[in-house]
Amino acid sequence: MDDEVAALVIDNGSGMCKAGFAGDDAPRAVFPSIVGRPRHQSLDQLEIADKSPSNYTLDLLER
């Protein structure tokens, strides 16, 4: 029985997320990232929904 445990490596990039095991030649999973905001969205299109300092939820303005 192999007692070695391979480390899991996750690269959460701005466009793609990649996951695999340390020592492998290539990631085992590659998929689009869903974290962040669209590239062509400007900051003036964002609005803070709840102005209290404890909640910074951003909502998109309808344009």
TrEMBL record:
Pfam families named in the record: Actin (PF00022)
Function comment: Actins are highly conserved proteins that are involved in various types of cell motility and are ubiquitously expressed in all eukaryotic cells.
Protein name per UniProt: Actin, cytoplasmic
Similarity-based family: Belongs to the actin family.
InterPro entries: Actin (IPR004000), ATPase_NBD (IPR043129)
Domain of life: Eukaryota
